Amino acid sequence: MANLGARTNGISSNQVEIPIHANGVESKPSEESNIDYSQRAQWLRAAVLGANDGLVSVASLMMGVGAVKKDISAMLVAGFAGLVAGACSMAIGEFVSVYTQYDIEVTQLKREREAANNNGEAQREKLPNPFQAAMASALAFSVGALVPMLAAVFIRNHKIRMGVIGGAVSLALLVFGVIGAVLGKTPVKKSCFRVLIGGWMAMAITFGLTKLAAFAQL
């Protein structure tokens, strides 16, 4: 009976311990803790930068042309040229920048692998992707650049067209600011304020200086 009691006690203790380890209630990590925000920041930075740059630069270019020409064709051609040139420039610049970072991290990884005598698989998963960053920049730039072009294409009245472009760009800047803040876990109001004020300043300066340059030539 003593042995049977010992076995019973042993079985009981095992039955108590096994469900606890199987369920893993205490050791289960939260999904939030598994998110790698450093990896997210790589493509997020390129995409948000590209979208804002495309939006502001093409809108400013169209505003500058609109300051001296009322022809809608001139504004659209200038916007399209800015879209193509800007997308190519963003893609090439981002590719070169991220590839430089990639080379530096690969070299550092080799040093660490030789020193620690391991294969470094965990670090390799976190290496930057220059092709991904370049494509994200080019596509995001193009999406941003389409906003002022689409806002202007169906409006013939020059003054109304300029106002619609300004309004559409302002709304898009707020949307991009919110998206970037939410995905990057940063304050929404500060993000929206920065991109909105920056966009307004770029359009106003381009419009004013172009108007002044055209007036000086008269």
UniProtKB/TrEMBL annotation:
TM stretches of this protein: 72-92, 133-155, 162-183, 195-216
Recorded superkingdom: Eukaryota
UniProt-annotated location(s): Vacuole membrane
Topology in membrane: Multi-pass membrane protein
Matching Pfam families: VIT1
Coiled coil: 99-126
Source organism (scientific name): Vigna radiata var. radiata (Mung bean)
Cellular component aspect of the GO annotation: vacuolar membrane
Catalyzed reactions per annotation: Fe(2+)(in) = Fe(2+)(out)
GN (gene name): LOC106752797
Name of the protein this chain belongs to: Vacuolar iron transporter
Any one biological process term the GO annotation gives: intracellular manganese ion homeostasis
Keyword Ubl conjugation part of the UniProt annotation: no
Family assignment from sequence similarity: Belongs to the CCC1 family.
Keywords: Coiled coil, Ion transport, Iron, Iron transport, Membrane, Transmembrane, Transmembrane helix, Transport, Vacuole
InterPro entries referenced in this protein's UniProt entry, alphabetically: Ccc1_fam
GO molecular function, one term: iron ion transmembrane transporter activity
Function field: Vacuolar Fe(2+) uptake transporter.
